[in-house]
Amino acid sequence: MRAETAPLGSRITDELRLIPRWSIVCALATFVAAQYYFWVFLPAVRHASSHIPALLHLYLTTSLGALLALYFLMIGYITKDAPRRGMNVRMWMICVVIPGGIGAVLYFLLRQPLLATCPSCGMSVESEYHYCPQCSYQLSGCCGRCFASTRITDLYCTRCGHDLASDHPPERLQAFASK
Question: What's this model's pTM, rounded to 2 decimal places?
Fold first, then answer.
């Protein structure tokens, strides 16, 4: 199933499955440690009483704990997501550890598209490619005039209106069109 035709809930679930267990455990431990620090340790060390209302204190400590936990979940996600996009994991881990969260923002802005495998030669190719650059195998349907992506069930190109039946797609794609 192609990523752009999958339902949104399915795509999000698939992305969440990338988060490794060690990252989830670290996130939970960080959240609990933050709560312990702000609710047990810090009040015992401080000599002056806090003038922050209880609900505001609860909101601030929960928010900070959740942000720290999210940071560990993001690190785990990037360790699994970067290799499937053909990106250097070590470099991105160094960038993500940079304080202020700018490395994580850069990762999500600059990450490469997902890689697919050519069924003919086995080369890793970007999922948007219509043809394999190694063996010229047609990976997905496209218009013969403007080379826009098309579905197998389309009769005409949605961009230029070209009659797709005149393009003579490969036999493996014609099997779907005849149904």
Answer: 0.66
Upper half-sphere CA count for residue 86 (Cβ side, 13 Å): 11
Closest CA relative to residue 89, chosen from 101, 72, 100, 75: 75
Q: Count of domains in the chain?
A: 2
Each residue's pLDDT expressed in tens, for the chain with a length of 179 residues: 344 456 767 778 888 899 999 999 999 999 999 999 988 888 777 766 667 788 988 999 999 999 999 999 999 999 999 998 888 999 988 888 877 778 888 898 988 887 878 888 888 888 778 788 888 787 777 787 887 878 777 788 888 888 877 776 655 554 444 44
User: Does 155 share its domain with 80?
Assistant: no
